[in-house]
What we know:
Number of helices of chain A: 5
Strand content of chain B: 15-25%
Shape of chain B: globular
CATH architecture of chain A: 3-Layer(aba) Sandwich
CATH class of chain A: Alpha Beta
Number of domains of chain A: 1
Order of helices and strands of chain B: HEHEHEEEHHEEEEEEEHH
CATH superfamily of chain A: Bacterial phosphonate metabolism protein PhnH
Oligomer: heterodimer
Amino acid sequence: MSAHPQFSGGFANAPIEAAHAFRAAMTVMARPGEIRSIAGARPPKPLSQAAGTLLLTLCDPDTRVFFAGATDTAAVRQWLTFHTGAPIVEASSADFAVGTWADLQRNSNYRIGTPEYPDRSATLIVECETLAQNGTTLTGPGIRDRSQLSLPDVAVFQDNSALYPLGCDFFFTCRDKVAALPRSTQITAGS
Amino acid sequence: MSEYNFAYLDEQTKRMIRRAILKGLAVPGYQVPFASREMPMPYGWGTGGVQVSAATLTPDDTFKVIDQGADDTTNAVSIRKFFENTAGVVTTEETEKATVIQTRHRIPEAELTEDQILVYQVPIPEPLRFLEPRETETRKMHALEEYGLMHVKLYEDISQHGAISTSYAYPVKVSGRYVMDPSPIPKFDNPKLEMDAIQLFGAGREQRIYAVPPHTKVVSLDFEDYPFEATKADHPCDLCGAEDSYLDEVIMDDAGNRMFVCSDTDYCRSRRAAGHEGRLAKEDAA
């Protein structure tokens, strides 16, 4: 381990690795319930490889990032700042928020966009213990009939989709795996 | 190849476009503003589509470009060469082999699959623009889901022409919420907007990106007594005999002779390769 761990763990070949990572992120956002591998970054603990790769793929000085709870360490902040230059902010002004579901849930004031500009909303990157195609049933755009995803909550995501076309969008990350839940998806508990 | 960053654009620009694409997919049919860049081609030549393709391509992709269905027209050839040079991707003219297809004003005849991405070049992304020129007002109309004006326009079509005369860029409602301009595709293609592939729309001059995820409900606006009709020229293709494809009319001589040919050149070629023959197929071979 070098004396300055924030300098390591970036993309070895940024244009190519970011292109592959984005395709995985786009595929899961377009097809809620799908799980894809996403890799390239080696962020400091406790960030997962998938969450770190998403941050390197999507963040730069134009995006404000909020780290919730256990993810908000000096090492994580230095790593993000060195590799992306993204400003670190509080939850209410974040474009991207990262943390476990329990930590992210302590804030309820994430940006949901405005009626004229619903795209000006936060994307939450939710670190999960497990990620599987079971549990909650999903229907809506991107889904042929129905799909299933192990969501960490039901009521909160239902409330979020009720705000449509406003609302937050979610990535779920676990080790090198990623799934997503856009606000357009309808959620029913159980299968 | 090494003179350029992969796929021409710098990484920060690609990140900005990628964030817009993700928000576009999350709110199907909503136009996400993005900071469109100057591209080495004039506006109107697909700068929006090119930027979306550049942000989407990986080195493993097989890229196809069509212009009004054809692989061999100027716009298609130049964009294909652009990405051969700047991204080093494999290109193809065969719809089935392509993973990313950039299109100007057509949807390929062959059904697209889960593994494909269709990128549209869009001139005017705002379906309400010719009814209401002010962006502040059209934004508000989308926010309030106030689409009565569009139905008035279609109604006036009927009262003047006896039918909805809009034949291309026919407005659709996406996922029951946003009215969207499907780009100037013929309305024959509108039913194909509900497909297995991811559809991304890029408007460079107008600085908008929008998207339709797979299997999303896309309804062409109409009236109960004047239902939407996907129309085409009432002929078979004179080269391959296809009766189900969208046709271009070609004037043959000064005597008014004409022929109809598939606008999708790859569809027509593959049908002829499979032995299908139209009325003028023999002459064409000679």
